[in-house]
Amino acid sequence: MRARQQPAFQHPPRSSSAGPRAAGVVAALALAACGSQGGRERLVVAAVRQPATALYFVARESGCLERERLDVEEHTFELGRDALALMRGNGADVAIAFETPTLRAAFTDDRLRVLTTLHTSTRNTRLVARRDRGVSGFSSLGGARVGLARGSNAEFFLDLVLRFGGVPRSRVVVVDLTPEASIGALARGELDAAVLSDPYAARAEALLADGARVFQTELYTEVSLLLTRDDVLVAHREALRRLVRALACAEREARERPDESRRSVRSRFPELGDPELRHQLGRVEWRIGLDHVTLGVLRDESEWLRSSGAEGMPPALRRLVARGLLEEVEPEAVMLLPTRVE
Amino acid sequence: MKRLAREILVPAAVLTAVALAALAYAGWESVRQSRALERDSAYVRRATALALGITDAVHEEERRVAALAAGPGGADGAGAARIREAGERLEAIAAEIASFPLAPRAADVWGRFLESRRALVAVGGEVVASARRGDPAATSMALQKWNLLGDRSDRLLSSFTAYHLNRLDRTVAELQRRRVRALALAGLAIVAGLLVAGGFAALLDRKVVRPLVEMANAARRIQATGAASPVAGGDRRDELGVLARAFNDMTERLVSANATLASSNASLAEAVRARQDFISIASHELKTPITPLVLRVQQLGRVARAAGEGLVPPAQVAEAARTLEGHVLKLKRLVENLLDVSRIDSGQLALRVEELPLAGVIRDALERVAEDLAASRCEVRVEGAADVVVRGDRMRIEQVLVNLVGNAAKYAPGGPVMVRVAVGAGAVEVQVEDAGPGITPADQQRIFQRFERAPPERHVTGLGLGLYIARAIVRAHGGELSVRSEPGHGATFTMSLPREAPAPPAPGRREPAELGAPSPER
Fold it and tell me: How far, in whole angstroms, is CA B369 from its chain's centroid?
């Protein structure tokens, strides 16, 4: 989690007008009095327990969700892939997942909608290798047994680094393991390397200690996404609006009070001490928004999936990315060119 | 107009002040928002120009790196120099952006762009180095990485540009919203203004105009009918309430004065009519005895001449003289009655009060009407008069008794006449009772008025002043004269005199009411 600078800036006129603001307050009070805003909403969220996606936990622990009068039933997974599966099976209204499982699902499920990103990072997903296996870089992965969770962003990461390392995919043995299993296999020497994200990557590094070599690349940008289905978007728009508003609230909390925000999610990662959590959060940038980087990442990985022979059809990204809700809640977070310009 | 001012003018002034304050606030807010919009649009304009500038510089750099990698002399110093030049241009724009106060999210994107740019520069170095080494494979690989990072830089710049274009869109949308809102507010203000103006007009109409119109209408009604026409609003506590009360009071007094005037006019007319009646009756009554008087005087002359010649005895002359005297005395009484009426009307009825033995007064009175009683064959009985003394004017009390007993002889001939004297705690009552035909209740009210006789159809002579004068005399003594009668059962007149006679009346005219209502001779 990187702190961002706050340059001097004059707010746009919409928010600088005292009159409309006062009118807004009056209107909000009137609406609250009428009870139209008073009812609680409920959502079932399939979350991922990773520091990268912990902005949702900040929203929950810092009271942003409660302030929005949103009741959440939460299901937590190791991988976004599994969270997504629950949502696709109508077991959840909302899911949090990285871009790769999202696209893989979107190839066969046109109900998926991306509401916002939750983080971006170029350093969170990395290759943790055993030093004793002679892996000195991406270019030396030929013949290595690499553990990763199939269907996760680790797959794309591995293909990318193999491509730029000049190693054919066929020369690498990919072992489908959950992150937890990969750590054990790596420690036992059953794997030469594993593609992992925090907190698993950090645990693997800690486990191997000096026997670990870690490789990462600026070429890969990962994003985590807040997803829903189109039917949920229609049926529970107000609840989703409140959820996104709560995430915007959490983003402000994290920007203005980073230490408090980190402490608020400590209970979600009991295996990590505060320094470890701070270190891991330093690798990611919590940020809600929809921009061309996200769109580019989705486009690139969609192309990769298509060329990899993934089942289904590449999704129409403009349809997959439902910018309207975020525009309603936090318009400045939508940094996509207007369609006619793009 | 203080209260009216409080109720109407003060609210109007307050509303006007509020409206002016609202207008001033709207003007100030409009100027403030316009300036904010100007600042915002200037910011967006500048940021977009910088974004486009840096995008152009990035593309220029990309083209030169691509040319370097593809060209045969890619490794020469000129290509690297051109890349350096493009990079320097890019850095110059970046420095300008760095000094520009970006919005937080734009600054965030810009920071990410700079990070990406650093990685790009590093990979660009790899491209140049591998090209210089003449290693096409390494150059190609480095170029692929460079393109990938370049894509990300491009996307960040697109996001940066998109942020500002979207912001421009929002600014325009906000302007449109404000325009619509301003129009709506203006419409609302017009409607509210009309409603307020209508309300004030209605208030003014109800509070001021309507009461004034009602007063004008009431004034016209009073002018047309002369009748009182009170206006509503007297219970109001404002100035119009004061006006309404004053108006009602004024009209009430005016109508009352008119009524008094009308009543006075009627009384005056009645007085004129009564005087004309009086003159007519008096002339007729005076004329009546004068004719026989003249005849008697002529007869006395003839008898006297005949007696002088010895043609008639002297007793006949004396008889003629007595007859003449009777007529003169009758005329005298008539004149005295008329004078009494005049005295009564002018309040000049003088009393000579003294202690009177009532029995003597009654006796003298009966002697004065002895002839009439004899002529009517009426027998008079007197009861209870012994030793009773009253204070009064002997001549006037006797005059009253003569009138009452004379009336009894006149109206109840052949019947008994009872004169009773009764002494009460503070008064002495003298009753004269006859057995005549009686008096109807209507006549009982009328007979005490001047020139009224009851019943009129009877052939009874007289001016109709006797009872009027008698009651006036009794009232002048502080007493009362009344009648009690039933038709067919006679009549009883009661003279009630106080034991202590009143002080003599002050000189000057007395109101008839003080003397009692005028009464006719019965």
Answer: 66
